[in-house]
Design goal:
Distance between the termini: 75 Å
Structural class: alpha+beta
Strand order of the largest sheet: 6-5-1-8-7
Strand content: 5-15%
Largest sheet: 5 strands, mixed
Radius of gyration: 27 Å
Number of strands: 9
Bound molecules: iron/sulfur cluster
Number of helices: 16
Shape: elongated
Length: 426
């Protein structure tokens, strides 16, 4: 096919796609709480929460956030503890810190009013091209394109794009397609507003917003990564992947990064109904969040353990760390040396690396958690202290105080189990 006729075909395809997508969205859009408002702040919060997180998980978080911090000013003024607690469990905590920085900037530079200019929105911390496009189109009905995982899947399948969407040229092509679609939707609003014979309908008012959301929604509900429901898809007649039976191979995202297993041993220490916990420092992963003192465990050093069994299946109740080297460099626990049990190495490392001198380690629970490409196993041990730790190791908090702090997901699970079990005398 010659380039001109190829372009013509593509143009007429784009033209036909827009009303199909808009009609489908009007009839099938889910009733989500952030879809009942045009408040840019509320839409912004939803978009940031929805990054890497499913809709059903986000709904209660969004409701709670909007109840506690209903305005940009409230978000700007909230304490770091408050915003982290409201985000606790959503993960990727730099998102919430950036959200607050952006709220503070809006108060400072824009008098507390969310900016409407696309470049001003894009300049805010934590807001990239996708999020700026989503806010500007959904809140202000601007013809700003969006391209995320869902939209990439829908477009590569409809247009039969076999190249990897991460490649620069292909990515630019996808942005262009998304832009052409939303600009065509804008034309519908424009034409309706210039009509002398009738007034604009509500749907015509929201064409850019609905077009972008229709792509996201189609990707979430119908054009799913596996087993898409092509039979009920509004655009199946125009879909190259469907026609050519190439659905499985599109989008061509290349090989997935292999998952890395990481293991940690955490130490639960209780004194007079209080627990020793520490806050992760600024700049670290999960900065500002709370956790039990813990160390990363070198692969293969301890066999997996079941609740109630001591590490390595051995009783380490009266372990005497007399032959343990006093200095073990680095954050990772090294393999055991000759004559030393893995459990002993663990205790020694805890003592030297964390500043804890402990005895009577007893396995409490093992928690599994996945984050990005890491598959984390957190082994929790109840331990007793040989000596009071220095203040740099952590601080003592009651269960009620711990409730008010934001913990990392794995440590939160361990905390609720450990607190119940220890305080009930189990
Ligand atoms: Fe996706 Fe199937 Fe619709 Fe094509 S026809 S867009 S593959 S759901």
């Amino acid at each position: 096919m010659r380039l001109n006729s190829k372009l013509k075909t593509q143009n007429s395809k784009l033209q036909k796609l827009v009303p199909l997508l808009l009609d489908w969205f009007t009839a099938n859009a889910r009733d989500l709480p952030w879809r009942r408002t045009r408040d840019p702040y509320a839409i912004w919060v939803s978009e940031i929460m929805l990054q890497q997180t499913q809709v059903k998980t986000v709904i209660p978080y969004w409701n709670r956030w909007m109840r506690e911090l209903p305005t940009i000013e409230a978000a700007a003024k909230a304490s770091p503890d408050k915003i982290h607690k409201l985000w606790e469990g959503l993960g990727y905590y730099s998102r919430v810190r950036n959200l607050q920085k952006a709220a503070q900037l809006i108060v400072e530079k824009h008098d507390g009013k969310f900016p409407q200019n696309f470049d001003d929105v894009l300049a805010l911390p934590g807001i990239g091209r996708y999020t700026a496009g989503a806010i500007c189109s959904i809140a202000f009905n601007q013809p700003a394109p969006i391209l995320d995982g869902n939209v990439i899947r829908v477009l590569t399948r409809i247009f039969g794009i076999a190249e990897n969407p991460k490649e620069k040229q292909t990515n630019a092509r996808l942005w262009k397609l998304a832009e052409e679609l939303v600009c065509r939707a804008a034309l519908i609003t424009y034409q309706a507003s210039n009509s002398r014979t009738r007034t604009r309908t509500k749907d015509e008012d929201d064409c850019c917003s609905h077009l972008n959301q229709s792509l996201m929604e189609l990707g979430a509900l119908v054009c799913t990564p596996r087993n898409p429901q092509c039979e009920i898809c509004p655009v199946k007649k125009m879909c190259i992947a469907f026609r050519e039976n190439r659905i499985e191979e599109l989008p061509n995202i290349g090989k997935r990064e292999t998952a890395t297993a990481r293991r940690f041993a955490a130490f639960v220490v209780e004194r007079n109904g209080r627990f020793l916990v520490r806050q992760r420092s600024a700049g670290a992963v999960n900065a500002h969040l709370w956790e039990f003192p813990n160390v990363e465990v070198a692969a293969g050093i301890l066999p997996a353990v079941e609740p109630g069994v001591s590490p390595g299946g051995k009783n380490i109740r009266n372990f005497n760390p007399v032959n343990i080297p006093r200095h073990i460099p680095g954050g990772k626990m090294p393999p055991s040396t000759a004559g030393e049990t893995p459990a002993a190495t663990m205790l020694a490392h805890a003592a030297t690396h964390l500043g804890l001198e402990i005895r009577n380690a007893k396995h409490l629970s093992t928690v599994k958690h996945s984050i990005t490409r890491y598959r984390i196993t957190l082994e929790g041990y109840r331990v007793q202290l040989r000596k009071q730790p220095g203040s740099r190791v952590g601080i003592w908090k009651s269960p009620a105080q711990m409730e008010r702090l934001a913990f990392t997901a794995a440590h939160k699970k361990l905390a609720s189990l450990a607190v119940n079990r220890i305080l009930s005398g189990q």
